[in-house]
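Appendix B, Record 12. Input sequence as logged:
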Amino acid sequence: MLAHHGYRRRRSSLRNPWAVGQAPRPPVPAVVGEVELLPFTITDAVYSASLNRVVVIESATRQLHILDLATGESVALQLERRPTAVALSPDGRLAAVGHDAQVSYIDLVAGRVLKLIDVPINSASIAIGRDGWIYMASQQQVQQSLYAIDPDTGHTKSSNTLIYVARLRFEPTGTYLYSGDSDSARGMGLWRLTSATSLLNEAGLSRHKAHMPTCGDFWISADSTRIVTACGDVVNAIPESEQELGVLGKLEGLHEDFFYPQLRAVFHVEQAGRLIAIPRWHSEAVWLPGENQLIFYDYPALRQEALVALPDMRIDNQLRRSSGRFIFAEPDGMHYIVLVQAEAPADRLATPGVPTSANDESTLQPIYGMVRLSSEAPVTLPKAAP
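Logged structural output:
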C-alpha cells in the first residue's frame, strides 16, 4: 500500500527530535469546570499568544469574534462579506480574513477593521508573512496561482508557478511558507520566502516537496522545526538539514498505512514538552479514540502519555457529547482551551453511543462551547492503552 501511494518513510538521523529544556514538565492537565457555552458558531479559529485571545470567524452572521481567555468575554466585529478563512500576523496583533473577492485587514488590539482589499479570488486559505504581505489561495485541489497582497497599498501579485493547495501555513517566525496537499503524488511543498517579490518573480525561490499525503491539513511546531500532518506523520522542517521534509515517525496509536485523516487538530506546547491532538474519528479507524478525547504525547519519544476525556455539554438540561474542534495552549504551558461542538441528542443518532463519523457531520449541532484545562489542578490518569 505504501508503494501504491508513492509514499516512502525515511528514517531521521536526528536524535531526540522533540527535545526541549531539562526542566521537568508540568503534570498532564485536568478539565476545570463545565463546558462554557459560546454565543456564536465557529467556521475557523486561531490563537494569538501575544494577546491571549482566540479569534473566531462565523460565516452565518458574517462576524469575527475576539475571545478574551482571561475573562471569557468576546467582542464581535461585523464583516461586509461571508468569511471563509482567517490568519494572524506573526506577532498575533493583526488578522487577515478572506472572503469572496475581498480581504478584511483587522487590528485585534483596537478591535476594528483597518481596511478592505479587493482581490481576484475567493479565499479558501490565507496566511500572513513576516514581510507583512498576505498570501492567499482559492479553492482546494485545483492547480492555481498563489496570490500576495500588500495590505498597505492593496496591490496584488500572483505567482507564475501553479500549485495545488489544501492549506497554506507560515511557520511561527513568518519566514517559510508551507503548502500542504492531500494527494500523495503531489505531497507537501515548501516555499522559502524572503519577500513577496522573491516569491512572485520566482527569483531565489526554493521549493522542496515531500511525496507524502498530508490528509488535507498540517500543523507546525512552535520552534518551527517539525510538522505534524492530519495523517499523524511527524515531518522534519529544519531547513537545509539532511532529512528536510523527511518523515521522522508516526504518532503512537495511529495506523501506519491509513491514508485518511486521523487528527482533527494539533497544538505544540513547547513549554510543557508536549504535543496535544484531537483525533478525527473515522468509521474504519476503530483504533482511534472518540473526538471527545484529547491525546497527550511526550515530545522526545512521540509516545502517548494519557487520554483526557472532554466533558459533555449541558443544553436544555440534556447532556450532549462534546466533539473537539480546536485546541490552544496559553504561553505558560499550564492552561489550555478546547473549542468543542455539540453532538445531536442520542435519539437523533443512527447508532447511539458511536462517535460521530468524520465523514458525516450531520450528527453535529451548530452549538459550540469552550473547555478549560489546567496543569495546576492535575488528576491521576491511567496510562493510555498501547
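The longest strand covers residues 94-107.
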